[in-house]
């Protein structure tokens, strides 16, 4: 069955659900009856759960954005200012600056889908796209597969499913699919009509988890896992509009004037593999291996990539710089500490009064030309 939700249907459900919460019934006074008040409307349990989940998700998104709005763009501007200072200090730095810019662009581009990323980029990226428990899955899954399956192909697929691009795809699909998943779950649970509407509206904002256990007989019979291993539970989490996600990166910590932690902000992010919930039985040594899916929404996925970009471009928000440590100093926007370039006293004038400075003459333009010619654009894509 194709699951698709048209925008006007989504809006209709949200408006209808919101009206059930916010609009009290209009009571017309009856003849001879005075001071009659309409009964107060209280949120049912399903509506309370949807509202509270949405509030928590929105708090996570706003807190992440509020730490450093557009942090990836901020860090790129800080880097450009630093490059300007290097060029002012010594025009022979043109080649070094060009190479660093190329490396930065290549690193960010390769992190987008992880198909051509190096190990360091993968490690930094997956901290923003994979939860801690799913890291165990990624480490163990290739070893579970039969020997006749190409391990390189499997690793490439897993890399893509762990990438920010896969998280953006899941975030884009989630708000359209999650309400229908919630509808199916509510019908299976025998919920009332009011609970069904509440769950669908809540799913649009907060997501829902699709149970895929009906596929288990076919999957287990296909021999994808060596005996006696078999999958005992399978689910897929779809995020809602406000779903922030859960990843391995330690929370951002904000410190007060005394150095104490004033706030701890869970990092946003997710991916396709992070959305997968699975339980595998018969695992050697471990016995079983299982964890639930962690959904991500569209806003959370893009915020996560912005924060990742800042890290890859050199933002020093966390202790070890490996994408997993907890920051031990104030988390500040990169732009808050920028220092614009300064020039030496004789930069615009020579030894004599009014004598113009030669900015390295034609040598500077030769270096710029060589840097542009040597820029390997094909390596970026």
Describe the structure.
By secondary structure, the chain is α+β, with helices and mostly antiparallel strands. 50% of the residues lie in helices and 9% in strands. The protein has 13 helices and 6 strands. It has helices at 7-22, 45-67, 71-89, 94-113, 119-126, 132-144, 151-161, 164-189, 193-206, 216-221, 272-275, 298-312, 361-374, and strands at residues 208-211, 230-238, 252-255, 261-265, 276-283, 287-291. The strands form 2 sheets. It has a 4-stranded antiparallel sheet. A two-stranded antiparallel sheet has the order 3-4. A hairpin with a 5-residue loop joins strand 3 (252-255) and strand 4 (261-265). Helix 4 runs parallel beside helix 13 and helix 8 (164-189) packs antiparallel against helix 12 (298-312). Mean pLDDT is 80; it is low at 1-41, 319-323 and 351-357.
């Amino acid at each position: 069955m194709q699951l698709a939700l048209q925008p006007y249907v989504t809006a209709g459900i949200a408006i209808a659900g919101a009206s059930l919460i916010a609009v009290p019934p209009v009571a017309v006074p009856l003849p001879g009856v005075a001071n009659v008040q309409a009964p107060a409307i209280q949120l049912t349990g399903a509506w309370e759960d949807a509202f509270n989940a949405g509030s928590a998700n929105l708090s996570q998104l706003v807190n992440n954005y509020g730490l450093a709005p557009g942090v990836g763009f901020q860090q790129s501007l800080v880097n450009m200012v630093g490059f300007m200072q290097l060029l002012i200090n010594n025009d022979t730095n043109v080649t070094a600056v060009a190479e660093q810019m190329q490396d930065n662009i290549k690193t960010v581009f390769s992190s987008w889908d992880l198909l051509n990323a190096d190990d360091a980029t993968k490690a930094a990226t997956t901290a923003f796209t994979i939860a801690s428990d799913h890291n165990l899955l990624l480490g163990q899954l290739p070893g579970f597969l039969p020997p006749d399956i190409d391990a390189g192909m499997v690793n490439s697929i897993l890399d893509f499913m762990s990438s920010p691009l896969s998280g953006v795809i899941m975030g884009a699909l989630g708000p359209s699919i999650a309400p229908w998943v919630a509808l199916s779950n509510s019908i299976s649970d025998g919920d009332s009509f009011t609970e069904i509407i509440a769950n669908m509206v809540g799913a649009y904002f907060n997501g829902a988890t699709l149970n895929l256990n009906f596929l288990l007989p076919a999957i287990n019979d296909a021999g994808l896992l060596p005996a006696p291993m078999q999958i005992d539970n399978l689910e897929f989490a779809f995020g809602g509009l406000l779903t922030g996600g859960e990843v391995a990166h330690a929370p951002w910590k904000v410190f007060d004037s005394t150095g104490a932690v004033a706030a701890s902000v869970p990092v946003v992010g997710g991916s396709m593999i992070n959305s997968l919930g699975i339980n595998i039985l018969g695992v050697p040594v471990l016995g079983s291996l299982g964890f639930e899916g962690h959904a991500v929404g569209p806003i959370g996925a893009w915020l996560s990539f912005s924060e990742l970009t800042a890290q890859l471009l050199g933002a020093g928000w966390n202790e070890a710089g490996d994408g997993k440590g907890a920051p031990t100093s104030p988390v500040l926007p990169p732009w808050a500490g920028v220092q614009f370039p300064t020039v030496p006293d004789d930069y615009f004038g020579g030894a004599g009064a009014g004598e113009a400075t030669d900015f390295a003459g034609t040598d500077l333009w030769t270096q710029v030309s060589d840097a542009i010619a040597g820029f390997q654009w094909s390596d970026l894509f």
